[in-house]
Amino acid sequence: MASPSDSQTASSLIETIQLEHVPSSYTVLVGLFKDVSNAEFLQQQLLGRNSEYEYAFIDASSVISRIQVLAAVYKAITIHMSGSMKTPNVHSEIVCSLSPNNNISEAYRRFGITPSSSKHLIIVKVLTPLPAITTTTTSSSPLTPQAVHQHLFANVKGTPTPFTDEVLQSGLTDWAKVRKYYKLNGVGWLDSIKDESLRRREAEVLVLGSMALRSL
Amino acid sequence: MAKQHPSGPLLSIGCEGSANKLGIGIISHDPTTGKSSILANIRDTFVSPPGTGFLPKDTARHHRAFFARVARAALAAAGITRPEKQLSCVCYTKGPGMGAPLQSVAVAARTIALLWDLPLVGVNHCVGHIEMGREITGADDPVVLYVSGGNTQVIAYAERRYRIFGETLDIAVGNCLDRFARTLAISNDPAPGYNIELLARKSSGRVLHDLPYAVKGMDCSFSGILTAADLLAAQMREQEARIAAGEVVKEEDRITPEDLCYSLQETIFAMLVEITERAMAHVGSNQVLIVGGVGCNERLQEMMGQMAKERGGNVYATDERFCIDNGIMIAHAGLLAYETGFRTPLEDSTCTQRFRTDEVYVKWRD
Amino acid sequence: MAKTAQWRKIHPPPPPPAQQQSEKPHEPKPETEQFPLPTILTYPSSTPPTLITQGAEARLYKTTYLLPSLPAALKYRPPKTWRHPVLDARLTRHRILAEARVLTRCRRAGVPVPAVYAVDEGAGWLAMEWIGGPPARAAINEWLKRRKEEEGGEGRAVPVTGKEERDKQLVALMRRIGSAVGRMHGVGVVHGDLTTSNMMLRPWEKGREPANGYAATGEGVGDGLLDGDIVIIDFGLASQSTSDEDRAVDLYVLERAFASTHSRAEALFTATLESSYKETFKQAPVVLKKLEEVRMRGRKRSMIG
């Protein structure tokens, strides 16, 4: 957990990202936490449907790039807008959008938070437009990015780290897993690419293609 | 050979009988004004009983039996008393079409040509439709959709030929409709397709049966759709039998002839409009002319009109007098060729079941 | 449409209403010129989407995906109002998915095509990797033009045979085309509309050239004009097929398109295409045999009469 004195700089480690072609009423916040020690607690909150913990907790070992995460966020938002969500909320949609198939529980297991394997977490919060009819419960005041920052720093026991491709490439990505999940093992020409950055880029577009064609 | 004063209007008689319509028409072209006048357009249709199609043998017999009567009526309507003096040529359908009916009419055309000592002009049936459509509607250089019982083609003119951009890969669209009318045992009078159209109009439009949509580039195919529609019709009959036996079938599960006709029309016309649009985009045209018997269908005209409007253009169509096979279109296209010096010598005045639209050298257009 | 269907009196044929209207000045432009954007592109973006092409059934926009720095091509199939809405939705969905599937299949197999970024088949769009560079058609024509100028530009253009040293670049490009098509056919995809307009010439990155020896370096016409990777685009009419007939038709369409747009290099193209196609595609000999048949058929079609 970040100490209070660090909160100013730590706060900048939770990025607010304005995605292209997304209504401005949606706000996307993304942060990367390394060495998370309370994954089990966080997963319990998810399973218990604790609305204060409504985040997309993504296992960073299944992620190869920022674009991959943003593509999942984008897809989840378009699904949210079209009203055709197959999971409880836009955050669970994000986790499922990372999957190359339609198996929801497998998606949670592979791309979501698991107490045993999730060391590093990418956490996404989407602040959605208020529904047209709000219930009169007192707690339904809109969340602010600041509130999200505070809540994350207070409750995620890990080291906030810049969410960059470089950090992901510094050993966070578990390539064996990624290759298995996205069926990259049979792709011979990919392995024969000598240039590492080019190879990663080609892998990335194959991953994006698999995600885009999920369920199709 | 021409028996007119060189500057006077030219008259021709056209004889058509490639399918079940026997048509004889007389047209006049004024070479100085470029105007055409229809002097006569008489038709007699061989109608077969419901559930049957017209067989070549019976159709040919009909044409032979009625030729003299229809020809006399045409001459009378045109006020022609001395055809050997007043006409310039005798035009007849050389093909494509059904062999026996084509032959009957070709023999009759040869007979009157010899009788009156007039030159013969053999005409491609499809070119006849196209030229008549252009003349009637004033469409100058349209993409042409030619849809009838025997033909389904998307055509555009380029360098002296009507080029076929797309066509059916199996049966003609009209054939598909006619055969489905037979499946449903709908009347063939005045035309099976027309009766399908009337039934389709009675559909609520809420049910669209799933029929295979078969478009490949600018070509399309209809035999799979016919098979699927026939299967649905069989299910419908089975349903009717169950209902007659006292079984209850839910209203929303009921298959009706109206919905079947509606679904069939919606599907095949969408295919036709799509391939036409593709050809229009290809040649950069926004005019479309629909010719052939199926072109009478108002739903097809409506869909084509919407498409053309979205492209900033127009649809041109004619009514049943010109859409459906007729003699006047043969007289008109034949006279256009005659004016460029084209003649069909007696020894070549045969007919052919296969005669592609793009085989004709269109000397009368630039 | 009952109005336009009315028979108009034959003498004199009056001009159709549309023609009368179009002669009027200040006529509002036809609806086709004010395309509404697909909903997805109405949401904010760093740069406004640009309409690149407008085909019979789809529009292609240049836009961005996720980040301002990531250019993308968005293909949109607008609803066809003339089609039954149920049928229209079914077809649009089906076609968007078919195209996305063919693209991902090719891309996974290493065939040079745009990568798929995102798909919304219900809304009728498909977002793809943006491929930079000119279409091969434009590059080849520019190259042929410069070569002609080199010859002096006078008199009739003589066929480019590829035998001269300066033609190396063109031959190399043709080999890259044949090789790309062979690889595509090898993974069970036929394109349906192969032309040099549907092939982009994506610039090589800082000195990185293909290792297959198809890049001709050295002196030649229009230095570097024909450099780049061939990327096949527009799979709107593509299908997954392993039929030799379909493949032969693909080659025939390409051959004809090449003949009509770059007629000076037609014979060279045919020969080069065939040899490089063989190198990347095992079943090429069967397809090339079929191609002979298709050519005969095609010629016959237009020659009779």
UniProtKB/TrEMBL annotation, chain A:
Intracellular or extracellular location(s): Nucleus
GO biological process, one term: tRNA threonylcarbamoyladenosine modification
Function: Component of the EKC/KEOPS complex that is required for the formation of a threonylcarbamoyl group on adenosine at position 37 (t(6)A37) in tRNAs that read codons beginning with adenine. The complex is probably involved in the transfer of the threonylcarbamoyl moiety of threonylcarbamoyl-AMP (TC-AMP) to the N6 group of A37. CGI121 acts as an allosteric effector that regulates the t(6)A activity of the complex. The EKC/KEOPS complex also promotes both telomere uncapping and telomere elongation. The complex is required for efficient recruitment of transcriptional coactivators.
Main location: nucleus
Keyword Oxidoreductase: no
GO cellular component terms, A-Z: cytosol; EKC/KEOPS complex; nucleus
UniProt keywords, alphabetically: Nucleus, tRNA processing
Membership in a protein family: Belongs to the CGI121/TPRKB family.
Name this polypeptide is given: EKC/KEOPS complex subunit CGI121
InterPro entries named among the record's database cross-references: CGI121/TPRKB, CGI121/TPRKB_sf
Claim: Iron is one of the keywords in the record: no
Gene3D superfamilies: CGI121/TPRKB
UniProtKB/TrEMBL annotation, chain B:
Domain Gcp-like: 43-331
Protein EC: 2.3.1.234
Enzyme class: transferase
Pfam families linked: TsaD
Main subcellular location: cytoplasm
Co-factor(s): a divalent metal cation
One GO term of the biological process aspect: tRNA threonylcarbamoyladenosine modification
Protein family membership: Belongs to the KAE1 / TsaD family.
Name of the protein described by the UniProt record: N(6)-L-threonylcarbamoyladenine synthase
Species of origin: Daldinia eschscholtzii
UniProtKB/TrEMBL annotation, chain C:
Any one Gene Ontology molecular-function term assigned to this protein's record: protein serine/threonine kinase activity
Top-level taxonomic group: Eukaryota
Signal peptide (residue range): none
Reactions catalysed, as given in the entry: L-seryl-[protein] + ATP = O-phospho-L-seryl-[protein] + ADP + H(+); L-threonyl-[protein] + ATP = O-phospho-L-threonyl-[protein] + ADP + H(+)
GO terms for biological process, alphabetical: tRNA processing; tRNA threonylcarbamoyladenosine metabolic process
UniProt keyword annotations, A-Z: Activator, ATP-binding, Chromosome, Cytoplasm, Hydrolase, Kinase, Nucleotide-binding, Nucleus, Phosphoprotein, Serine/threonine-protein kinase, Telomere, Transcription, Transcription regulation, Transferase, tRNA processing
Record note on quaternary structure: Component of the EKC/KEOPS complex composed of at least BUD32, CGI121, GON7, KAE1 and PCC1; the whole complex dimerizes.
Protein name per the record: EKC/KEOPS complex subunit BUD32
